[in-house]
């Protein structure tokens, strides 16, 4: 059976596929999404919703470029989305503590100067009245007041609704099994026993993107995206227990408005396995208890998601080198929400022949993976100096 054609067919309905659809619809395209299950049930659902890379000064410059652009866009976009859909993604500029000590003071300062963020180094005695529940001891944290957060499931529901409102078509429970090779082009995709045609195809299947890219006869290893498991806990606590996000040693606490506190996360290269482990739970509980020693925390849920891991965390937003009507928007690794608005904008500009808002070379599939960091910054994976080690 052949389905009616659309201008653009997007494979994958996570935050990246949904945001891509929204952007393309806004600019006049007819868009269809094929999603293997319900939209927004994989990595996008599992994530924490922090709208900044964890230590942005350690992140490659191309990530910071998409971060800074998205950061400027979020407030207006959130207000608009809320007005148009009636759904509230709970975007809030809650701010973030970085409690790793000041070994990276210089690097953090350079990053703030380069990308226009503000931050303040506080003494423990100054931080204490702002966050009385936190065990500051002798930690002198960096306070980043601009950093915001969203509640992922709510943002996903709102974007899904916006896509439908704009006339996008979403086929859920429709797994794509094959991209049909038509020489230099994709000739359709096979899904649930039907063939779907479009002028242009977008691969936004998160951690599954490399597998899918290979179904047209290509090599799976060519697109270097692999699943990277992250485990997370959520606790119920009294609202106001913690007012800002807190990051230390690669782990973090995210307070929601209703008092819930998320604790994340692990970074595990264990293939497509999404099981949770006692060991990870123990690590995350210990982190939460270290920072909030007097707080009654009731564990509500423990889950895992598979991040679309790319070698440097820089996503592929690009035309496919050998298939002229196939585009990629995948490999956002730890920062899919951080970069989603800018990634969708750039993809739309490339597909719809509009001038790109930024130099697209860094996001090209086939680029060199030696990605420039911010001048004078430490390596992207440098370690912090958190006093609490897990
Ligand atoms: C524990 C954890 C914490 C995180 N915290 C943050 C954070 O604080 N901030 C942040 O910005 N990012 C965070 N991330 C990363 C972020 O969640 C991801 O970068 C982002 O969700 C990637 O979005 P995506 O749409 O590419 O992938 P996904 O959300 O995984 O979506 C891909 C979609 O493709 C579908 N699909 C797969 N195969 C097929 C097929 N054959 N046919 C049809 N559909 C298919 C899947 O079902 C899925 O819905 C976190 C991730 C985890 C796991």
Short description:
The protein has 390 residues and is α/β, with parallel strands linked by helices.
From the structure above, extract its key features.
binds flavin-adenine dinucleotide; 9 helices; alpha/beta; D-Amino Acid Oxidase, Chain A, domain 2; 23% strand; FAD/NAD(P)-binding domain
Question: How does this model look, in words?
Answer:
Helix 1 runs parallel beside helix 6. The chain is globular. It has nine helices and 17 strands. With 390 residues, the chain is an alpha/beta fold. Mean pLDDT is 93; it is low at 378-385. Strand 13 and strand 14 (261-264) form a beta hairpin. Helices cover 27% and strands 23% of the residues. Strands 4-5-3-12-13-14-11-15 form an eight-stranded mixed beta sheet. Strands 6-2-1-10-17-16 form a six-stranded mixed beta sheet. A three-stranded antiparallel beta sheet has the order 7-8-9, with no helix packed on it. The chain has two domains: 6-52 and 154-223 and 311-363, FAD/NAD(P)-binding domain; 96-146 and 226-309, D-Amino Acid Oxidase, subunit A, domain 2 (D-Amino Acid Oxidase, Chain A, domain 2). The site of flavin-adenine dinucleotide (FAD) has 43 residues, from helix 1, helix 2, strand 11, strand 15 and helix 9.
What is the SS-derived class?
alpha/beta
What's the number of helices? Answer: 9
Strand/helix succession: EHEHHEHEHEHEEEEEHEEEEHEEEH
Q: Which strands sit side by side, in order, in the main sheet?
A: 4-5-3-12-13-14-11-15
Coarse morphology: globular
